[in-house]
Design brief:
Order of helices and strands: HEEEEEE
Largest sheet: 6 strands, antiparallel, barrel
Helix content: 25-40%
Low-confidence stretches: none
Number of strands: 6
Strand order of the largest sheet: 1-2-5-4-3-6
Shape: rod-shaped
Number of helices: 1
Structural class: alpha+beta
Length: 123
């Protein structure tokens, strides 16, 4: 077999192999770039509710104050404003005066009216 004939037979095979090698490198580089630019999965974002909430357990209409019960053990600060809601509607504004005992505290009624069972929030 002649050396020139061998070169002619290997030449197309060598070209095909080099072409495959060159294009496969570009493919993997492009595939990696696409995979890195995909956004992370966007699931729901959950944030805890850190607001204060309480219930009115006693109302003194003569002294214009209420006794509030906070279920979580976190009591508001003295002089903090709170808002009283009944059936989803704001019915009164309160100002915490104290004293505080366990989960209960006293608040003055600044404006509006209160009833036992009303919801109280700081927002």
């Amino acid at each position: 077999m002649n050396l020139n004939v061998l070169k002619l037979k290997l030449s197309p095979l060598l070209c095909v192999l080099l072409l495959m090698l060159a294009t496969s490198g570009c493919f993997w580089r492009h595939h990696r770039a696409v995979a890195q630019t995909r956004p992370a999965s966007t699931g729901p974002i959950v944030t805890p509710d850190a607001s204060l909430s309480a219930r009115v357990i006693s109302v003194n209409t003569v002294g214009q104050f209420v006794v509030l019960n906070f279920p979580s053990g976190e009591l508001p600060k003295t002089e903090q404003k709170l808002f009283l809601y009944r059936a989803g509607l704001k019915t009164a504004e309160l100002r915490v005066t104290g004293p505080q005992s366990e989960n209960n505290t006293v608040a003055d009624i600044v404006s509006g009216e209160a009833q036992v069972g009303d919801a109280v929030r700081d927002q």
